[in-house]
Amino acid sequence: MPLAAVETIDILWIALSAFLVVVGLALAYFLFRLAATTRDVSSLVQGLEQEALPLINKAGGTIDRVNGQLDKLDRVTDSAVDAADGLDTAVRAVTIAITRPVEKISGLAAGIAHGLAALRARGDIRGAVASGRAAAGRRQEEIESELHGGGEAA
User: Fold this and answer.
1) Is there a contact between 135 and 113 (Cβ–Cβ < 8 Å)?
2) Measured over all CA atoms, what is the biggest interatomic distance in the chain, rounded to whole angstroms?
């Protein structure tokens, strides 16, 4: 077959064949590289499974122990709150038991002091008694307002 007898279509077929061979070789190279990458990723995932699963198990155990300790701490704080409530109740009871007699005794002392001072000043027993009773009432009210007003004097 002479060279002149080669037609354009034959040249196109040869070029297409060469192109397809080059594309096939390039695809084979990329597939080979992709297989190597897939093998590396598979190895990485297996290593992560071997390392991560025991770590996750240890973390789960640690979390369980922390939760147990938090439960104990919750019981301790509940006990402390109960103790504080009991102490508050006891302090209130003692305060109530002591407050009234202190008010009365302080009022009595103030009344006697004012009554005696009024008796000396005026010589009138009836006026001294009235002055003493008024002073006793004022003193009891002062103490009550101090105790219930947070210690502030009226």
Assistant:
1) yes
2) 164
Task: Supply the pTM of this predicted model.
Answer: 0.40
Place of tokens 């990485």: 44
**Could you tell me which of 133, 132, 152 has the C-alpha nearest to residue 142?**
152
C-beta separation of 143 from 105 below 8 A: no
Name residue, tokens 């070029």. Answer: 15
CA-to-CA separations, 54 to 58, 59, 61, 97, 101, in angstroms, rounded:
6, 9, 11, 64, 71
Mark residue 151 as left, alpha or beta (left: phi above 0; alpha: psi -120 to 50; beta: remaining).
left
Residue bearing tokens 């704080």: 77
| Each residue's pLDDT tens digit, 4-27 | 577 899 999 999 999 999 999 999
**pLDDT tens column, 41-62:** 999 999 888 888 888 889 999 9
